[in-house]
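To the wet lab folks,

You asked to see what we're planning to order before we commit. Fair enough. Below is the target structure as tokens, and below that is the sequence we designed to fit it. If anything looks off to you, flag it before the synthesis order goes out.
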């Protein structure tokens, strides 16, 4: 089936014994792909809720441990070996892992508390040391100020001396009034607010001095590096018989509200030096204790960080994967119903049915008695549409993602991804065609494929799109050869089929020179045209833009109509696969007739005009206008009768799409809508009562078979108008192939002419230097604009052509995905996140 249609699915019921339910679900998640339906959606009964709560707590502990391990220098767990974990996942048991995690959690909590206490002691000793150093610096300043001469300086010196007298004398203090100070350490970000609070609370009767500490300290609570400052508050202390004055008490309350640490200010220089010596030794001891503790924590963390075995993850990572796997198992078991035996409805690929049965039989040994699992397929197909399951590989996955972003295909609906693999990079190449730029894009794609394992986690977007980048580069180079563009320069790969005639002496410089063809342009059996791509003689010609515009515009229309015809053929395949005769006869056939009669005829005229020499070639635009307006063409290509017949067929296809389908559906509904007694028995039947199954089936049929003729008519009118007008607008939309190709070629030409040609046109030897710098400018502009912005622009326009113009012809895109219970898929998804 491949990518054209989704995998055939079957619906059934899985029955597992309660005592071995976890074992069987683990085997299913490891070896098969099954999607389970929630059997407890109405009553929300979740019998395995306690297991999930336990695993949630285990995951919380793992997150805590991982956060703590990030604080250990050089700690980085080994990750991303999901397959190796699945091969050895049986080594882990829930109770065992849970007990080890709780033990580790308690140990790391203790480590954290001990580390916080050690940090607090070290910081306290370090802060007091800085306070003492600030006091010593102040005392040294006082000593150096004894030689001041001016009265103002002598007054300040006497005031500071009374505060910081190194002998500690009190002869200059009055009995009731003296100066005091309070010193401590505060965060630098709080010091301005602290100073303003002191000034306001004391009405300006204090003076605060701050000394910045340049060495950052680690906060014991947050672990972050913080910057602090030493502060000294000078104030006039009035001691009226009490040991603590009101001013001192007020300042201490402010310090407490800011959470600052206060320390004793040394009374003399000798006391300060003695304190500094003791604090230096204390800081060194605390540093040794901290390093010893960090070394111990690092050794304990090594058991969690080291790989369990060769080519396996770290222990903590495998514990994390184990929790994810176990949580998914119990979440799946919560979908089952029953007491002795659990059962749940499920979807599974048809080709996997035999393997699932074999797995259930193989793991149902006699030693377990009746503890066996079984898969019971439904005898009657379910009324619900099956999910869509499309098998992809590394190459096709990105193209399927592009399609699924627009909408997932229905079950067994034609999948556009099969054609997108080729058409997407090809249409991109038509827009971006340039040999040089294509080679640059191709080199990026080759690098992404080569380094895919390294980019998987460092640059996941490039890893996922590596193959589409490669394909886009290949087709850009191919289209560049077709356009014969190499950074806007034409390449003479073969001998040109145009020659320049001899210029007569009477010819004025700068006049138009008509090139003469050397090939048989009348198809009389002479030499052929340029073998591949565009003849290099067109580059630089005065009518180059006119020729390229005509060629690329017609090529865009031909490619667009061809892709839309492919979409209509896929609509035929959908109708045939679903055996929908109404859609086949009343939609597919008239749509194809309309498309071929008008736009197919236009493409045929384009191709015929390209290969057939004509003395007076007709204008295709005028021919199409005359055909649509039922007027006479002044220069017809195939006469007047054929265009009129084709236009009449187009007009007849419109009511064909509009009228028959609602009538047929309404008639079918009237036939199927029979009295209940005729379908399930009655006076003329076999019985007068319906069973419960028949009643439920009847109610479901009545709910599903509601038919509204007016709604059907409106829907068909919208479909017809959308298709008829859409074919015109979509054909015009494909002209973006021409517009973007022309814009790319002209931008490349302008950038090259304004940089490289300007540098090379400088006189010798100046052109050596100008060319060097011009190349840098040209390369930067090329990478930034043409390799960055233009690639994105062409990519988005190509995406629009596939989503709107191509897929709208056949693609409903209203399916829902098959989401199987698979350990590998779940773990890879969580790991990528």
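Sequence we intend to order:
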């Amino acid at each position: 089936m491949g990518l054209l249609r989704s995998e055939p699915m079957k619906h059934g019921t899985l029955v597992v014994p309660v005592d071995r339910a976890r074992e069987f679900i683990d085997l299913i998640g490891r070896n098969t792909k099954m999607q389970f339906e929630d059997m407890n959606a109405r009553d929300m009964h979740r019998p395995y809720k306690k297991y999930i709560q336990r695993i949630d707590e285990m995951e919380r502990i793992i997150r805590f441990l991982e956060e703590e391990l990030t604080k250990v220098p050089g700690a980085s767990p080994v990750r991303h070996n999901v397959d190796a974990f699945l091969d050895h996942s049986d080594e882990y048991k829930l109770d065992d892992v849970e007990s080890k995690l709780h033990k580790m959690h308690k140990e790391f909590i203790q480590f954290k508390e001990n580390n916080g206490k050690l940090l607090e002691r070290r910081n306290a000793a370090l802060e007091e040391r800085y306070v003492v150093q600030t006091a010593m610096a102040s005392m040294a300043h006082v000593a150096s100020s004894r030689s001041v001469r001016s009265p103002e300086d002598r007054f300040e010196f006497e005031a500071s001396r009374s505060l910081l007298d190194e002998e500690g004398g009190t002869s200059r203090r009055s009995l009731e009034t003296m100066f005091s100070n309070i010193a401590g350490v505060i965060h630098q970000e709080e010091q301005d607010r602290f100073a303003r609070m002191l000034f306001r609370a004391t009405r300006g009767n204090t003076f605060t001095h701050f000394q910045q500490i340049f060495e950052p300290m680690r906060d014991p609570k947050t672990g972050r590096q913080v910057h602090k400052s030493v502060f000294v508050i000078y104030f006039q202390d009035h001691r009226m018989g009490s040991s603590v004055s009101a001013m001192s008490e007020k300042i201490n309350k402010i310090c407490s509200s800011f959470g600052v640490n206060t320390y004793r200010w040394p009374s003399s220089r000798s006391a300060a030096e003695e304190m500094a010596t003791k604090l230096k030794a204390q800081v060194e001891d605390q540093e040794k204790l901290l390093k010893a503790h960090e070394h111990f924590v690092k050794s304990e963390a090594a058991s969690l960080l080291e790989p369990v075995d060769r080519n396996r993850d770290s222990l903590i990572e495998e514990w994390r994967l184990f929790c994810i796997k176990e949580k998914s198992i119990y979440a799946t078991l919560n979908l089952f119903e029953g007491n002795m035996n659990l059962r749940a409805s499920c979807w599974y690929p048809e080709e996997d049915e035999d393997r699932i049965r074999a797995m259930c039989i193989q793991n149902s040994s006699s030693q377990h008695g009746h503890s066996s699992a079984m898969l019971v397929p439904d005898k009657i197909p379910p009324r619900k549409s099956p999910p869509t399951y499309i098998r992809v590989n590394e190459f096709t996955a990105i193209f399927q993602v592009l399609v699924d972003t627009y909408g997932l295909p229905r079950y067994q609906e034609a999948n556009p991804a099969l054609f997108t693999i080729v058409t997407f990079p090809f249409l991109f190449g038509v827009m971006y065609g340039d040999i040089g730029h294509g080679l640059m894009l191709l080199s990026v794609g080759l690098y992404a494929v080569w380094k895919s394992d390294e980019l998987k986690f460092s640059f996941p977007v490039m890893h996922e799109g590596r193959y589409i980048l490669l394909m886009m580069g290949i087709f850009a180079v191919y289209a560049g050869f077709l356009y014969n563009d190499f950074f806007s320069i034409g390449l003479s790969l073969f001998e040109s089929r145009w020659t320049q005639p001899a210029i007569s002496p009477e010819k004025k410089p700068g006049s138009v020179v008509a090139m003469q063809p050397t090939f048989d342009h009348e198809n009389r059996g002479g030499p052929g045209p340029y073998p591949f791509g565009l003849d290099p003689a067109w580059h630089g010609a005065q009518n180059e833009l006119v020729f390229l515009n005509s060629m690329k515009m017609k090529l865009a229309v031909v490619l667009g109509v061809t892709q839309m015809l492919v979409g209509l053929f896929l609509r035929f395949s959908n109708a045939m696969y679903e055996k929908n005769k109404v859609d086949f006869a009343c939609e597919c056939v008239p749509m194809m007739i309309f498309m071929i009669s008008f736009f197919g005829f236009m493409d045929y005229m384009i191709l015929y005009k390209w290969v057939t020499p004509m003395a007076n070639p007709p204008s295709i635009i005028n021919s199409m206008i005359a055909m649509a307006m039922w007027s006479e063409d002044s220069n017809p290509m195939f006469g007047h009768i054929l265009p009129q017949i084709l236009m009449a067929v187009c007009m007849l296809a419109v009511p064909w799409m509009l009228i028959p389908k609602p009538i047929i559906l309404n008639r079918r509904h009237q036939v199927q809508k029979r009295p209940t007694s005729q379908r399930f028995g009655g006076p003329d039947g076999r019985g007068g009562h319906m069973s419960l199954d028949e009643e439920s089936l009847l109610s479901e049929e009545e709910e599903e078979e509601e038919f509204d003729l007016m709604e059907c008519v409106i829907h068909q009118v919208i479909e017809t108008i959308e298709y008829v007008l859409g074919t015109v607008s979509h054909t015009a939309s494909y002209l973006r192939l021409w517009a973007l190709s022309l814009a790319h070629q002209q931008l490349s030409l302008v950038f090259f002419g304004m940089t490289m040609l300007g540098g090379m046109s400088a006189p010798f030897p100046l052109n050596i230097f100008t060319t060097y710098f011009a190349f840098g400018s040209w390369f930067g502009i090329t990478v930034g604009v043409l390799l960055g912005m233009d690639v994105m622009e062409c990519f988005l326009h190509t995406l629009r052509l596939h989503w709107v113009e191509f897929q709208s012809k056949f693609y409903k895109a209203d399916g829902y995905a098959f989401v199987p219970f698979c350990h590998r898929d779940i773990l890879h998804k969580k790991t990528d996140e």
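Structural context that might help your review: Residues 1-40+334-389 form a domain with the Alpha-Beta Plaits fold (CATH 3.30.70). The chain has 28 helices and twelve strands.

Thanks,
Computational group
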